C-alpha cells in the first residue's frame, strides 16, 4: 500500500504515517494537504495521512475545509501522538556558539520559556516545517545554528540532540487522520464525524441541532463552526459524536439531522484513537438493543393497521 502524507520527510506527520502503516508499504511526502487529498482521489496512492487537530493550536482548518467542501473522501482512522520537541545542532556542535534557532513558528512559540532561559537573545528564524529547519542546520554544518525539531527529523538529517522535552507545556498532542474511501466496520468504541449546514441562521438553530443528540444520550466530543464560504456570516458545524454509523442511536440521530437541516455530510465513522472496548461501550450496545426493540414494537403495531 502506498500512503501519502503531509511532508516534507522528517515531520510529525511522517511519524504518524509510519505508525499507522506499521512500517509496511511505501510512504510519499507531498507539499500540502490539498495535494494529499488529490493523490488519494486520483488513485496515485491508496491512503493519505494529514493532521486535523493539535492540543495547543486547535483544528487544522485546511483539513476541515478539504473534508467539507473539496472531496468525497472519508476518514478511515485516526491516531493521536504526543509532540516531543528537541533542540538539535550539527554533529559535534553545542549550544554555546548558537546565534540563530530555526523551526516552525508554532514550535518556536511553544518553546518560549526554554529559549528565554537557555538561548536568550538568540535570533528565532521561522521555517516552513520542523523538518525543513533540521535540513537547514544540516546543510549549514556550522556551530552557529540550532533547530527545534522532532526526534525523527534530527535522526534523518544526522543532527546531535542537545536538549529534550523543551516545550513549555508538556502533554501537547496532535491528532492525525487517515483518508480513503471506506467506512470501517464498527469496533464497539467508535466515533462518527459529520458537518451540518443549518437551514437558516435564527435563534436556537444550534440548540435544536444539539438537542437531537442529547435526546438520544449521545456524547458530542467536538463542536466547531467554520464559514460555509458561500456568504458572509453563514457557518456550518463540524461534530464528532461517540458511536458508529451502524449503531441504532447514531443512525437515528443522523436521520433526524438529515430530515431537519439543509444538508449533512458524513465525514467518516471509525475507531477512536487509543480507545478500547469498555463497560461504557457495552452500555452503548445495550442502548442500541433497546432502540431496535422499540422499532420492532412500532413495526408490529403498524402491521396491524387495517386488519
Question: What's the structural blueprint in terms of helices and strands?
Answer:
Blueprint: E1 2-6, H1 12-21, E2 26-30, H2 33-41, E3 47-54, E4 58-59, H3 61-70, E5 74-82, E6 86-89, E7 100-103, H4 105-110, H5 112-118, E8 123-126, H6 130-140, E9 145-149, H7 151-156, E10 160-164, E11 173-180, E12 190-197, H8 205-214, E13 220-227, E14 235-242, H9 248-260, E15 263-271, H10 279-303
Parallel strand pairs: 1-2, 1-3, 7-8, 7-9
Antiparallel strand pairs: 3-4, 3-11, 5-11, 6-9, 6-10, 12-14, 12-15, 13-14
CATH class term of the largest domain: Alpha Beta
Sheet with most strands: 6 strands, mixed
Secondary-structure arrangement, i.e. CATH architecture of the largest domain = 2-Layer Sandwich
Order of helices and strands: EHEHEEHEEEHHEHEHEEEHEEHEH
Q: What is the general shape? A: elongated
Terminal Cα separation, in Å?
58 Å
**CATH topology call of the largest domain:** Alpha-Beta Plaits
How many domains comprise the coordinates? 3
Oligomer description: single chain
Q: What's the CATH H-level homologous superfamily of the largest domain?
A: ACT domain
Number of strands: 15
Work out the strand percent: 25-35%
Structural class: alpha/beta
Considering DSSP H and I runs of 4 or more, what fraction of the residues is helical?
25-40%
Look at the structure and give the mean pLDDT.
88
Radius of gyration of CA atoms, rounded to a whole number: 23 Å
Amino acid at each position: 500500500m502506498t500512503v501519502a502524507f503531509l511532508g516534507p520527510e522528517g515531520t510529525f506527520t511522517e511519524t504518524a504515517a509510519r505508525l499507522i502503516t506499521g512500517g509496511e508499504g511505501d510512504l510519499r511526502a507531498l507539499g500540502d494537504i490539498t495535494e494529499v487529498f488529490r493523490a488519494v482521489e486520483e488513485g496515485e496512492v491508496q491512503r493519505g495521512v494529514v493532521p486535523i487537530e493539535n492540543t495547543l493550536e486547535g483544528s487544522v482548518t485546511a483539513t476541515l475545509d478539504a473534508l467539507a467542501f473539496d472531496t468525497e473522501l472519508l476518514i478511515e482512522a485516526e491516531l493521536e501522538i504526543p509532540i516531543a520537541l528537541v533542540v538539535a545542532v550539527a554533529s559535534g556542535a553545542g549550544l554555546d556558539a548558537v546565534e540563530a534557532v530555526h523551526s516552525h513558528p508554532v514550535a518556536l512559540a511553544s518553546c518560549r520559556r526554554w529559549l528565554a532561559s537557555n538561548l536568550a537573545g538568540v535570533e528565532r528564524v521561522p521555517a516552513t516545517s520542523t523538518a525543513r529547519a533540521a535540513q537547514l542546520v544540516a546543510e549549514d554544518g556550522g556551530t552557529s545554528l540550532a533547530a527545534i525539531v522532532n526526534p525523527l527529523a534530527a535522526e534523518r538529517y544526522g543532527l546531535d540532540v542537545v536538549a529534550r522535552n523543551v516545550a513549555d507545556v508538556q502533554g501537547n498532542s496532535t491528532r492525525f487522520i487517515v483518508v480513503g474511501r471506506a467506512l470501517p466496520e464498527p469496533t464497539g468504541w467508535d466515533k462518527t464525524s459529520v458537518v451540518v449546514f443549518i437551514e437558516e441562521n435564527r435563534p436556537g438553530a444550534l440548540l435544536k441541532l444539539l438537542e437531537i443528540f442529547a435526546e438520544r444520550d449521545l456524547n458530542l466530543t467536538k463542536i466547531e463552526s467554520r464559514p460555509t464560504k458561500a456568504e458572509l456570516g453563514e457557518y456550518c458545524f463540524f461534530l464528532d459524536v461517540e458511536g458508529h454509523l451502524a449503531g441504532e442511536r447514531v443512525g437515528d440521530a443522523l436521520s433526524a439531522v438529515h430530515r431537519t437541516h439543509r444538508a449533512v455530510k458524513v465525514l467518516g465513522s471509525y475507531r477512536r484513537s487509543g480507545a478500547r472496548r469498555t463497560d461504557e461501550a457495552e452500555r452503548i450496545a445495550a442502548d442500541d438493543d433497546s432502540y431496535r426493540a422499540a422499532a420492532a414494537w412500532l413495526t408490529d403495531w403498524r402491521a396491524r393497521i387495517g386488519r
